[in-house]
Amino acid sequence: MFGFGKARKFTHTTDVVVLGSGGAGLTSAIAAHDGGAQVMLLEKSNRIGGTTAVSGGVVWIPCNSHMAEVGCEDSRADAMTYLRRITEGRTDEVLLERFLDAGPEMLRFLEAKTSLRFAPLVKYPDYHPELPGGKMGGRSLEPGLFDTNELGTWKDKLRRSPVFGGTPMTVTEATSWGVFSDPLKLPYAELGKRYKQGLVCYGGSLVGRLLKALLDRKLEPLLETAARELIVEDGRVVGVRAERAGTELNIRALRGVVLASGGFEWNAELVKQFLGDRVTHPNSPPISDGDGLKMAMSVGADLGNMGEAWWCPTVNVPGETYDGQPLNRGDFSIRSLPHSIIVNGRGQRFVNEACNYNDLMKPFFDFDPVAYAPRNRPAFLIVDAQYLAKYIMVTAVPGMPTPDWIVQAPTLTELALKVGIDADGLEATVKRFNGFSEEGVDLDFKRGLSSYDHFYGDPKNGKNPNLGTLSKAPFYALPVQLGAIGTKGGARIDEHGRVVHVGGRPVPGLYAAGNVTSGLMAAGYPGAGATIGVAMTFGFLAGRHAAANGG
Ligand SMILES: Cc1cc2nc3c(=O)[nH]c(=O)nc-3n(C[C@H](O)[C@H](O)[C@H](O)COP(=O)(O)OP(=O)(O)OC[C@H]3O[C@@H](n4cnc5c(N)ncnc54)[C@H](O)[C@@H]3O)c2cc1C
Question: Taking Cα atoms as reference points, which of 136, 294, 154, 265 lies closest to residue 212?
């Protein structure tokens, strides 16, 4: 029916075919295997792990069993209240409930069946901890460190982070060492030793352990194998056509195909159609091309949340690349530290710079109907010499010469002229902001009021961990780009991870999980790890259901 003539032969037969080796795909493959299915996992790129491998590796699961162990309270009712608010009534409650029930189960399953052991991040608050049902810590968990030597010949096939790769530390260590506020005090000799030894952290550790679990099951992923289209017979997805080194594979999937191929942020056409100009600098590796989304569309999948992404303010160092594309670095912390502000072309602040990266971007999309132009773009991060004396700003390290690519000037007015900002506006904004900094209270945007803001602030900074004057020359400016750590729109799924047809029924034989699906969190972001937490939970459900029921 879909590009597959009856005369063509299947080259392989298995029970479940999983497309993609990120958090969703790997978890799905393990769950399907342990559910008694034969599994094949196809990965388009030459590395295992997708965006998950370059991520922070944090997983957000409310009511996880580790919270009680460290004295963090939670309840299903609180989690549901919080998620209702974060998702603004846009998500089917059946799916939210399924996530709350199956998330802890997924963690227990992985901890019982793999070497993964999650540690709750007691000091990492939800992204809106003060909202009803929000928590001050414990819902976000981390996977710790992983020794890549355990992967044997697969060691070099693990995707590495271009940013976190060289300093293997746990999130708990990073927090207690003051990775943002005291970057020069990190134990670099120890980190260097760990790196040489082959240890990885964050997403590399999460994926490393999941990959190890696959290999322990004698299940070797097929790298450089791109799924091209679904094979459909009598309205049921029965397999996949894929390409590997110029050879065509026609794989029959007796129990189901799981789409776990990530988002579409690197597909310029899909971005143009669904997101317009709101994502120009994706933070993920250039592998999220929307292949799975298009496959789902080809069999009539219903779509949801297509206009949303996991937004993230982004900075670019000219010349830095990753996998042949510009490396777009998400700014998770720079803008939260004292002595920094973000301003628009009029030199005005327009957002609490220290709020979470997803929500921070929303005012970037404001549109001025009279000027018929974005109100807050272009935008610039402005810092002063006090900032660079204490904190790392991308590649600018305290005590080292400031890199040439950062625009600097001896006065705010000269800086404004250099980058094209209204100089009077900038001077007035800084004067007002400096007053707030002296008092420790941001009357305009409440920066530093939420405990979330403090997590990325400087605890040693007097009255407010996030506020400090911009008063010492020189002054510096960096353009803030429109980034995303992934897209959030895609195929709608049901509570078993089955793809839902536009007609409302499941598409027989087809499952999906992760960023290829319609994002559970709608426009919101409840806490660190919510993208991978949801991806792994629905990957787990899909793999298990496919193995047991065959779609
Ligand atoms: C710097 C950074 C930090 C982040 N930190 C966190 C964090 O700490 N916690 C969190 O929750 N989220 C975090 N995120 C977001 C998170 O990493 C992603 O949302 C998540 O990993 C997506 O998982 P996935 O399994 O859907 O896709 P991916 O992990 O991207 O995996 C998809 C895989 O499918 C493969 N693929 C694509 N097309 C095909 C095809 N046709 N055939 C076969 N294979 C295919 C891709 O090559 C890729 O390997 C971060 C992101 C970034 C960029």
Answer: 154
